[in-house]
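Sample pair:
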Amino acid sequence: MQEYVFKNNKKLRMGYTTGSCAAAAARAAARMLLCGKPVSEVSLMTPKGIRLTLEVLDARISPKEASCAIRKDAGDDPDVTDGLKVYASVRRSAEPGVQINGGEGVGRVTRAGLEQPVGAAAINKVPRQMIREGVEEVCRELGYEGGMSVRISIPGGEALAEKTFNPRLGIVGGLSVLGTSGIVEPMSEEALIETIRIDVKMQLAQGRKYLVLVPGNYGLDYLNDYHPELLRRSVKYSNFLGEAVDAAVEYGAEGILLAGHIGKLVKLAGGIMNTHSRNADSRMEILTAHAAVLGADQKTAAALMDCITTDEAVEILEAKGLLEGVMERLLKRMEFYLDHRSGHSLERGILVFSQKTGTLGKSSDADRILECLKKEIE
């Protein structure tokens, strides 16, 4: 595929999703079944409006079934599914319409809260629509009015799924067939945000009312000291705190416990909801401002501004007797911005730590939210 996007001043080649591969393979297999002869390529219009012309691989035809594969091309996106073959097998069916199921290497949904119901193949809504519409179009073109049964398979998908979020989300036995636009944009933030939203929805679908939000693995390690079972309740939001809070509100959470390293959460005290360094930093500016309000002299302020890491800044604040006061002020600002983002619709507790010092501070409701979480576990 020779379509490009520019991200961070780099020209990056776009690719196409597993959903596009599945839809193209099903379209080609349906044509082969009804015509009785193989095809070498297939054309597919994606929801994004980009038309793909893809090579058809491993074409096989019998009187009852036709199958073929499309090779996944993720472009310049670091996708574990890049290069995999996505197969579709198509049979005539006595049942009207197009029935879609998953075979080898396609995961099965085992937990409520995902887009597909428990027990269904992990083929999401848009890919299902693309598969169905493509097969229906071929049937109309060739004058076939009966039903069609489509099975999507991804050999090797079960092993690769262990490198994805699927086991955590309750999708077992293989990969998900994904894609809302049909096109892979390298380093897509949209895909990561959607994963976070799904995780939030899944957690709340279990009948829970309280969520644990952590930026990453440091937060998980920290929570392990409080209660190992909390790890199962946690949602890793990466840098997308605002979107995680939005999802918690949308899906009906009563409260959240936010636990993170000072290097991430200090940005929240400045109202920064996307904490990636390329989006915003201001860690030292925020720490220095609050230290100055508490009486830090010019030399201390300059030393804080020159710090590379927040752990280094914490040491300076502790040495100057300012750490406790700064943390109290930061936590109040964090509460303010969480309330603002949620529209005051969530209870919230906040735990802040550093690698060297451990717990640096707790918000006023942190212990109460912790107890609510523990009661839900029990």
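The chain has a mean pLDDT of 90.
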